[in-house]
């Protein structure tokens, strides 16, 4: 159960669905409620599928390119730190590849649930590398099932948050969402730094 909670907390912090609320509202502006709910549903489904695929076949991709898991942990830690700093500085969207041009293009397409909402906003390099490393660290079947369950719980949380985006936006306001995002950003930054430190200790066997 501890592994489930740790995985859920780490993924939720890195994905930060609350930080995606303003972008979700902007991309679905003018859509009826049913369309917004459908977009929220498929965004959460896409997040789940992408993260599960990353979890199970990430090791194969690493082996193909000859990348060690410790190097991946350091690279993932850097990406996670970048996301955390983006949340703290208010440049999260740009760091996730969602600039004005991307947002304008997304509004011309129907499949915004996949990109930019699922990729790169939520299921980005940080969450992918985190799961690939966890797959290596947890070879037991029961642990893998717990991690998949945590991914599923995060996907459900993503759906509930995006589905309630209008209510959350009205309740917290822009300043409230920014404040929460910066608190989460601090936690994400700490996770990334700890990730890098642990990897360096393993590499240099300190």
From TrEMBL:
Domain of life: Bacteria
Family the UniProt entry places it in: Belongs to the UPF0056 (MarC) family.
Membrane topology listed for this record: Multi-pass membrane protein
One GO cellular component term noted in the UniProt record for this chain: plasma membrane
Subcellular location as annotated: Cell membrane
Keyword terms: Cell membrane, Membrane, Transmembrane, Transmembrane helix
Designated name of the protein: UPF0056 membrane protein
